[in-house]
Amino acid sequence: MQAWQVHENGEPSEVMRLEDVARPVPGDGQVLLKVRAANINFPDVLMCRGHYQVRPPLPFTPGVEICGETEDGRRVIANPALPHGGFAEYAVADAAALLPAPDSLDDAEAAALHIGYQTGWFGLHRRARLEAGETLLVHAAAGGVGSAAVQLGKAAGATVIGVVGGADKAAVARELGCDVVVDRRSEDVVAAVKEVTGGRGADVIYDPVGGEAYTQSTKVVAFEGRIVIVGFASGTIPSPALNHALVKNYSILGLHWGLYNTKNPKLVQHCHEQLTELAARGAVKPLVSERVPLAGAADAVQRLGDGVTTGRIAVVPSSENGAAA
Question: What is the b/e burial string over 74-90, where b = at least 16 CB atoms within 10 angstroms of the residue's CB?
């Protein structure tokens, strides 16, 4: 079969190689899956660079979430068991963690429903306890992680402010349903948020960016507000001033979604049921901006790493895949 292999760490476009390799052999409790669509995530970029908290042995195949097909023909959502990731024709995954792919979504959309939406659901509902009528601010609102949070926030009855970088991404954020869109490249984020909230600020802030975005968050968080730390796409990890959190009376909440798979897997299943229901009634629909063939994976991963993509890019190994079953 064909699979992308990383033999050394570096930029994805330089270290990912498409090779002919043997099909992976499932271990105990694992299953072999035909990859119908693989969604590209920022951890794929970080793993290529050797900067992710999980470092699979070299060589490895990136691709941490897929819509796959079991040997008996079931469409499932899975996190492949590294080093046999999803940017390949076949992958392996833990049988106990397979989730049914929603009938309302095609393969690429189903692949994109998992990590980003699970992270958003746990961040907004489990950690921040977002309530209807509250104001939610989402950084990188047109990205894969941010777009999921925007849709989930709207589904929960929140007023959503999306922060983006550039006019094209601003248009995407509006289409996603943001009530207010702030372009950080042409507007003062802090002043704009204070203006639209009457000086009160945002009750919940969803931050997958870090760096300057986190600094802005601390300036616009409301009394008893909650800042959810999801990641550091900017490459800069902030150092919070805890005296500031004390004086302004806000909470800083960390979210590492992967921990729930081992700490409380029943919650992951419950979340998937909630997401499936939301997808069935059209309240959420993953924004798949591109579907690329397997040969285009390295370029697509690099573009995600360079911050020039919107929504999700799905790698579709076979041209017959990507449509609803």
Answer: ebbbbbbbbbbbbbbeb
CB 15 within 8 A of CB 6: yes
Residues 87-133: tens digit of each pLDDT: 999 999 999 999 999 999 999 999 999 999 999 999 999 999 999 99
For the chain, the straight-line distance linking the first and the last C-alpha, in angstroms and rounded, comes to 23
Q: How many residues does the chain have?
A: 325
Q: How far apart are CA 253 and CA 242, in angstroms?
A: 13
pTM above 0.90, yes or no: yes
Burial of residue 323 (number of CB atoms within 10 Å: 0-12, 13-18, 19+): exposed
Tens-digit pLDDT profile for residues 156-176: 999 999 999 999 999 999 999
